[in-house]
Amino acid sequence: MNNEFTLSRITSIVAGVLSAFGLAYVGIAQVWHLPYGDEINQTIGIVVQFISAVLAAWTGKKITDAKNASKAKAEQSADSTEEVKG
User: Which of 29, 43, 62, 74 is placed for a possible disulfide with 37 were both Cys, Cβ 3.0 to 4.6 Å?
Assistant: First the structure.
């Protein structure tokens, strides 16, 4: 199984579950008069945004690394072709 796909999938699931939990707590807090409903929901929103930002940065780095590796491989191939001709 592809580790990148797995990490992306897991973080998406965690973000979705946290968001749903935040909304559920706000609703339950209103019914049962529990404290800090909005504060907990906002905190969960911040955590979800953090997870999304880290995942986006990690994905961006992987894309950049892949492009650089592809470019280096193409340059190496061109160099070896020139050596064969020379």
Answer: 29
